[in-house]
Amino acid sequence: MAAKIILNEGREKSLTMRHPWIFSKAVKSISGRANVGDTVDVMSSRGKWLARAAYSPESQIRARVWTFNQGESVDHVFFINRLQKAQARKALLGIPSNAYRLIAGESDELPGVTIDVFDHVVVMQLLSAGAEKQREKIISAIERVFPEAAIYERSDVNVREKEGLEQKTGVVKGDVPNEVIIQEHGLSLTVDVKKGHKTGFYLDQRDSREVAKRLASNKDVLNCFSYTCTFACAALAGGATHVTNIDVSEDALARGKENLLRNYFKDTQFTQQKADVFNALRDYHANGEQFDMVILDPPKFVDSKSTLNRAARGYKDINMYAMHVVREGGLLLTFTCSGLMPTDLFQKIIADAALDAGKDVRFIQRLGQATDHSVLATYPQGEYLRGFVCQVSNR
């Protein structure tokens, strides 16, 4: 018989609204023995069954809900069904690529699980104690849904430490190449599933890359935090006259150049600049250099609520410097991938940056994560990528 988590009185409301997290302060007691990652039944203070969840005694999120259906067991069939249903949902989206996010954690009803498909390679990332406990069942489900695919694990993220887990990577099944070539909107792009950022590629920016492509015609583009230059490829495919890519990583710039050349762009159409973006933007401003379009896609600045104010200052500064190097009437595509950064706060930060830069900014379009990174209505935390297309003018 499964152990039970009994909630404090009045703390069942979020579960009745089908939010999948149970915080430590909501737990009154535990009936029975529950080890790390075990599946437990969640009960109200009055003994009503509420959910079946994965137990994580070392995390502030004490349990993550697998199912709100009392008749559903968390077994092999459970994970196969979850993957098959997600596959069916994603198939309806008409994704213009052979790479997509199959499972986006809680938004696809598998908390702590990320599964990305890159052509013939499936990359899995297990972020929670419950996901780690169900590891073999998850692998078995992937094999069932993708019988011909190779499987690679990228559970090398700091959040695992909050769950008392060590980081882990490696081949799970099959022959995993060092590089996988995927197709996106007619472009051929390289994915390094073993050493690349996250699971190897920023699938969540697919839709925004297409926006950049549409806007880039006849423009001189500055691509900040360029990583492997996927925004640059999109911009040049859209008719940009030239793209300057800035990144602090020489290896990323080299891989980016490979992507650009693979898509038959000439090396005269782009420049690779190894530099700290903050310093580079200051130098451009000091030298009076400007661009028709600036793309600003920095790494996550916010790790916790305690760092939000500091991160807000960082976002304000970098957007201010970016506005300085946008030509009159030009465009700024600016993003935050910090899930703790609310959209309204990010918009205010951009407005404040415009004031400090002495610019007028108009919000032309709101951007967000690609359609395969959908957000479950009862789990708003699934929205983490936010962006705006801004038109920048002198006062």
TrEMBL record:
<dbReference type="InterPro" id="IPR029063">
    <property type="entry name" value="SAM-dependent_MTases_sf"/>
</dbReference>
<feature type="domain" description="PUA">
    <location>
        <begin position="3"/>
        <end position="88"/>
    </location>
</feature>
<dbReference type="GO" id="GO:0032259">
    <property type="term" value="P:methylation"/>
</dbReference>
<keyword id="KW-0694">RNA-binding</keyword>
<keyword id="KW-0963">Cytoplasm</keyword>
<dbReference type="GO" id="GO:0005737">
    <property type="term" value="C:cytoplasm"/>
</dbReference>
<keyword id="KW-0949">S-adenosyl-L-methionine</keyword>
<comment type="similarity">
    <text>Belongs to the methyltransferase superfamily. RlmI family.</text>
</comment>
<dbReference type="Pfam" id="PF17785">
    <property type="entry name" value="PUA_3"/>
</dbReference>
<dbReference type="InterPro" id="IPR002478">
    <property type="entry name" value="PUA"/>
</dbReference>
<keyword id="KW-0489">Methyltransferase</keyword>
<dbReference type="InterPro" id="IPR019614">
    <property type="entry name" value="SAM-dep_methyl-trfase"/>
</dbReference>
<dbReference type="GO" id="GO:0008168">
    <property type="term" value="F:methyltransferase activity"/>
</dbReference>
<dbReference type="InterPro" id="IPR036974">
    <property type="entry name" value="PUA_sf"/>
</dbReference>
<dbReference type="GO" id="GO:0003723">
    <property type="term" value="F:RNA binding"/>
</dbReference>
<keyword id="KW-0808">Transferase</keyword>
<keyword id="KW-0698">rRNA processing</keyword>
<dbReference type="Pfam" id="PF10672">
    <property type="entry name" value="Methyltrans_SAM"/>
</dbReference>
<dbReference type="InterPro" id="IPR041532">
    <property type="entry name" value="RlmI-like_PUA"/>
</dbReference>
<dbReference type="GO" id="GO:0006364">
    <property type="term" value="P:rRNA processing"/>
</dbReference>
<protein>
    <submittedName>
        <fullName>Methyltransferase domain-containing protein</fullName>
    </submittedName>
</protein>
<dbReference type="InterPro" id="IPR015947">
    <property type="entry name" value="PUA-like_sf"/>
</dbReference>
